[in-house]
Amino acid sequence: MSSPLRSPEGVWWNGKTSSTERWWVGLSVLTAVILFGWMIGWQKLGAQNPTGPTYRVDPEQFQAAIQAYKEQARQTDEGLVPPGQDVYIGARQWNWDGLPVVLEVGKQYRIRLSSYDVQHGFGLHRRDKMIEQFNLQVLPDYEWVVPIEFKHPGIYDVQCNEFCGVGHRIMHGQIVVKPGRDEP
Ligand code: CUA
User: Fold this and answer.
1) What residues in the chain have per-residue pLDDT under 70?
2) DSSP three-state, residue 34
3) 55 Cα–ligand 1 center, Å
4) Which of 48, 153, 155, 160 could form a disulfide with 127 if both were Cys (CB 3.0 to 4.6 A apart)?
């Protein structure tokens, strides 16, 4: 089949690149370098939330740690009240082990996330303010320790944001955030 485009003549690939073309290549490289620097700079200067460390963990070990944590936590009608800073949350098909949990405004917590089976997504958003939300991936064999402090009281919904099987859409949980004890 013949092409409607005329092929360039001679040894075109060995010819000199035009200066306009070189400018464009230079500009593209410069833009890429600036964006790359911006990505690193924004992480440092943009007051981003710290993402926290991750550790290797055996799913069974993690499940045992959650069990021990739940035994120490205080059971209330609204959910578990953690004994200290650590808040264990285990993802499994298809619910969140350790939720609902009751936390306090202005207190530093460490959310300790892992999965018992497959990959899940920890999506957290404030019920009356959808714009405030974040998403974290939850993987088996890894424990992610996420530092978190809630600034507003309210109900925060947790939903799975990674397709994890037939029950994915019902994989919900809740974090209830109460005003701190020092507040009026
Ligand atoms: Cu868990 Cu989708």
Assistant:
1) 1, 49-50, 181-184
2) helix
3) 21
4) 155
Tell me the backbone φ, ψ of residue 78, rounded to 5 degrees.
Answer: -85, -15
Please state the atom number of ligand 1 nearest to the C-alpha of residue 91. Answer: 1
User: Tokens representing 96?
Assistant: 């969140």
Give the Cβ contact number of residue 146 at 10 Å: 21
Say how many C-beta atoms besides its own lie within 10 A of residue 46's C-beta: 8
Q: Hey, whose CA ends up nearest to atom 1 of ligand 1?
A: 120
DSSP sequence for 58-118: -HHHHHHHHHHHHHHSEE-SS-EE-SSSEEEEEEETTEEET-SEEEETT-EEEEEEEESSS
**pTM for this model (two decimals):** 0.74
C-alpha distances in angstroms, 164 versus 18, 58, 144, 150?
A: 52, 19, 19, 28
Ligand 1 lining (C-beta closer than 6 Å): 91, 94, 120, 160, 162-164, 168, 171
Distance 116 CA to ligand 1 centre (A): 12
Q: How far is the CA of 27 from the centre of ligand 1 (A)?
A: 43
Looking at residue 180, the DSSP 8-state letter turns out to be P
12-47 pLDDT, tens digit per residue, is 888 888 899 999 999 999 999 999 999 888 878 877
